Each structure stands twice: as structure tokens, then as C-alpha cells.
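Reminder: ligand-aware prediction takes two inputs, not one.
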Amino acid sequence: MDTRIGFGWDSHAFKPGVPLVIGGMRLEHHSGLAGHSDGDVLLHAITDALLGAVAAGDIGTFFPPNDPRWKDADSSIFLNLALEEIQHAGYGIVNIDTTLVLAAPKISPIAGDMRAKVADLLGVDLDQVSVKAKTPEGLGLDHVAQAHAVVLLERVRDPEDLKSMSAVVQSQRELEDIVEDLLTQVHGVPKRRTIVPAFDTEDIT
Ligand code: MG
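Here is what comes back for the chain with magnesium ion:
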């Protein structure tokens, strides 16, 4: 299978006097999100979406809320574990779409920064991440923040191939020989390539 999809959802209640952390960003607000960890509802939903996409359980499987090690934990730890799980399964992220549902604070002025922060935490480009926000109209849930996340994954090159390749390639010279062999097979004649230095060493004054 070349692609897989994952969905994650989370909610946390607001609690006065607690720092508000969403999408890995500390936001100015009179209340934060109550939780055993830092309560980052968005990173929790993304973590569950990633784990769900490779059927690796959920955030509670790896980080039980009764474990004192995860008290006030930075939720990027959870995200990193989920990234390792999808990499171990041989997949990479195509894109992630998320929706936050909360009455306050307003997310739209900082949605761009939050998107950049999440992309940075995931190690992907900005255009692979979407962060949207809505207010919970008619739900009577102004005391709660919710997050929904959908992720699409695609299979990356066979990690075993990469492993055997790295075992063979001991030097840049050997890598060049392998590439030349491949080019010879394709074109029928050896193609000499000119190695261009990364910068002009005479020009760094
Ligand atoms: Mg949570």
C-alpha cells in the first residue's frame, strides 16, 4: 500500500492560571488547558492522526496519563515518537490538515506562525501543513478547546535498500563510481561528470 490516512481528535478544558500552549506555541491568555502534560490539544490530535495512520495505537498507548514522567511534559515529545513510528513503518508525511475549535483566544492572527511552528516540529515544508480555527457556535463548549487532525502518508523508499546502499558506499569516490555505472547501463557509454565544488574556495575572503 503506498498511501495511508490517519485521523486524530482531542479536547482539553480551560483552567485559569495555567500556561496556554497550542501547536507548540505559548499563547497569551488568562487560562491554559488542563492536562497531565502541557495540554497541547493540537499536537495531541496530530500525534493521534500519525499513530492512527500506521495503526500504531494512540497517544495513551505510549504515554499513559497516570505516568508521572509525562507530568507537564512538552507535547513535542509525543509528536516525535509518532514521527519515529511512521518512519519505522516506512512512511513519510504528504500533508496534514487541522481544525481547532475554541471560543478564545482568537487564532486567526497567529495561525500563520502556528502553522510554521507545527511544520518545523514535523520536519516538513510549510505548504504541507494547514491550521484552521473555528468557534464552537451553539455547542455550549466555550470552556473547552478541541482539535481535529487528518494526515496523509506515503510510502518512502525501502529502508532496507537504503541500509544496504549505505553499507556499500564507503566514500564519495565509490558513490561517484556507482552513479557512473548506473549512467553507463542506461546510456551505453561512460558519462564523465565534472565535480563542481560547493563554493569557490578562492572567493572566501
Ligand atoms: Mg490531550
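The pocket of magnesium ion is lined by residues 10, 12, 35, 41, 44 (CB under 6 Å). Confidence is low (pLDDT under 50) at residues 161-170, 191-205. We will return to this case in the review session.
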